[in-house]
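Hi, here's the filled form for the chain we discussed.

Project: internal
Contact: R.S.
Residues: 162
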Amino acid sequence: MKWLDSSFEAGTLRPLSHTRITQRDGKKTVEGFAFAADKVTGLPDMPGNTQKALSVASPEPAFNFEADMELLQALPLAEGYEAQLVLYHPGGPAAPARYTFRVAGSEAIAGPAGPVDCWVVTTDYNQPGTVSKFWFARATQLMVRQESRMPDGRLLVKTLID
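And the returned structure, exactly as it came back:
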């Protein structure tokens, strides 16, 4: 089981805090983070926080990687649109980094009620030679599909089920 709770600044989706609680094999792990313009830190007063000592510098404000799909859905997607976003996975081993997301075109994909006209957004997650693809419904901007190659070669597929 995994429970995520994030708070954001209204109007910008700038992250303020993020809590992640996982329960696996009877073990509960609590992680809490605060996002600031120049760093991400652990929440020192959160009971049981295993990340309370975390302090990761960020050369510019970072968005929360665990809310990347919600952020992408809020962008003004259109033909030729490109966004460079600084993302950080709270508590992860990689430092905050800038990633480029591009609208590579449009495509209709199968949906439960017929074809869904989508924007196709791509990124290489700073791993040249790899491409992750996302399909966002043009009418709603909801992500309806993702395909990403995992480091071990497996294909990760996420699909919105309606």
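Let me know if anything looks off before we file it.
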